[in-house]
Each structure stands twice: as C-alpha cells, then as structure tokens.
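hi!! sorry for the late reply, been swamped w classes. u asked for the two structures so here they r. pasted raw, havent cleaned anything up. first the sequence of the first protein and right below it the tokens
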Amino acid sequence: SRLRADGPGVSIDATASLRPDAASTVDARVLKVEGVYDGALQLTADDRGRSVSAHGRYFDARTMVHDLSAPGGGGGAGGGQAPAVRLDLALDQVRVSDRATLHNLRATGVWADPIHRRLDVSANTPAGSAASLHLTPDAGGGLISGRITNVADAADSFVGVGGFAGGTATVQGRLRPEGADLVVEMRNVRL
C-alpha cells in the first residue's frame, strides 16, 4: 500500500506491507509533522523483533524522554517480555527538553530486556561539545559508560547551570531495575 499526504504542517510519502505471518514494513521516505518530526522513518516487525531506522533533520523527543524517565518507564520490567527493538538513528537535531537540543545524534543498538540491551549513542551540544554513552548487557541490568568533552557547556546547555569553565567527565556504572549506580569523574572543571 502507498500513502501520500500533503497539508498544513504535514507531508507523508510512505509505503507499507503489513502481513500477520511474515515481516511487516512501513517505509516513510518523507515524514514531516510540523514541530514533531522531519525526515525518513522505517519500521519493521519480524520474528526477531522490531526495528526502527530514523534519518532526519528534526525530532521532538520531549514526550518520549518524559515517559522513559517516569518510574517504570525504562522498559524491561514488569509483566510480559517486550520484543527487542533494533535501533539505527541519525538525526540532526533532537529536542530532549524545553531547554536542551542535541545535535548530530547517532544511536545504534538493541533495546531489549536488560540482559540483551546494547546501545551506543553520541551527540553534540549546540556549541559543539561531544557526549557519548555506551550501554552493554550485564546479568544485573547493564553496564554503562559515557564521556562528556566539555562539562561547562553540557551543564549550561542541558540544565541551565552556569559558573563552570571547561572540563571533561566520564561516567561508569551499572543500570539496575531499581535505578542506576554511577561513578562520575570530572577533571579540569573550573568554577
């Protein structure tokens, strides 16, 4: 099936193949919803799980970030086992809060139950400082490591905290169902 639509604030050019007994695919070469998303999006569901491939200019992720940060919102806990979701994201701008926008976000991996969860994410602040995060499987939930190339820029860009200059940070730890145990080490941060 093919779907094409153009209207105020919306533009879609997509194909879909939905089959209950085989792989199903939605391929939107153009998906533009003003203020929410602008790019291409491909969704696939098969016997190995689901996959999301998003390559675009803009995504407003505030609602998703809010839902994931709510108690029990991280997935992998509770009732039934959710299918694995394979991710391939390349987005020029991602709004994560009213104040913060990530640039050049790249994310690849699998979001699944904690024992199989693997994710690599990198992004820049509006001023160009780089941040990266790596999540690897672990029997207790997941191992996390990350790096921020400019603590002062990241603090100002994401939480509005000023008064710092420069500095780098590393994050190491473990994600557990009840929360995260993290060690954050900052170097050469000046007040």
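now the second protein. again sequence first, tokens right under
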Amino acid sequence: GGGGGRKEVSSTSFSAAAAFRSGAMVSHCYTAFAVGYQFLGFLVLFVLMAKQVLRWSATIIGWSFIAIPVANTVTMYLFIPPLVRSVGVHGLITYSSVCFGVVLGAFALPAVHTSPSGVMIVTFCLIICIVMVQVPNQTRIKTIADTYAPGNMGSITGASRVCFAGGQTVSPIVCAVLYVRSPSLAIVSML
C-alpha cells in the first residue's frame, strides 16, 4: 500500500501530456498545420493556374518545379542562419508569416496570377516564405521536447508531423473547390 489506490503516472507520460497542453506546442501545431496547408495549397494553385490560365504544357510545368529545390536550398543555407541569429526563431517565424501574407496578397491580384513571370516570381517567393516558417518551426520541437518532455522527442515530433499532414490533406480539396469559384478566393484561403 500506501498509494491509496492511486495510479502511478510515469514521468514520461506526464511530461508528454504537459508538452501537449503547453502554449508552445499548441502554437507549434497550429503553425505546422498552416504551413502544410499553405505549401500544398499553393502548389495545387500553381499547377491549376499554369495549366488553365497560362496554358503551359505538362512538360513546362514539370520543369518549373525546379524552383522548389532551388528556393529551398537558397533559403536554408543563405537566409535562415543569419536571420535566426539576428531575430531569433520566433522572430523569423513571425516576420516570414507576415511576408507570406504580403506575397499572397500580391498573388491574389489578377495581373499577377495571370502573368507567367508573376506566377514564377510569386511561386519562388512563397517557397522561400514557407521554408522560413517551417524550418524554424521544426527547430521549436527540440526546445518543446527538452522543456516539457525530455526523452519523449518521438511523440512530440509525431504530433507535429500529423498536424503538417493534416494541413496537406485538407488544402488540395479546399483550394481546388475555391479555385473553381475564383482563384483569388483559393489564394486568400491560405492566409
């Protein structure tokens, strides 16, 4: 005895529960969902606009996807390290989210999303903005796990990935349905 019928709760499950209830984890999961939604949503829009508005062939659309790894590489190695040193992880997430909104606002303008150069420039900029939110947001996982759930990184990372995948699951459907009504509505849905 001595426990009075009370169940022992392992420190690992307690710390994981504490992490999932924390504001840091809620903020992280919201950001992960939003970035998943935005990333796949704008790729769906890019393909729809390239095919229907710009009348690009499947080959040209395929070649244009070179912009994704180029933008990822430039962002991860040239932009993120000095910006994190300058404004911190949370600052970079905040500023990049604002930039994403500004670029989406420009993308919603018909003069931009009906022009080949406008679509490509905005696509490149959106990729940069998304990577500058996603990479620092993933960095937050280590901090959250270390603070609330030492030794339970897998659970915390798994929850993050589920949130990101949830956004990616919803966005193609929502963006395509809204695109039929108006490309600008689909774009605004990513704000």
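hope this helps!! also noticed smth abt the second:
The helical segments are 11-21, 23-53, 58-64, 67-107, 110-113, 116-148, 153-181, 183-188.
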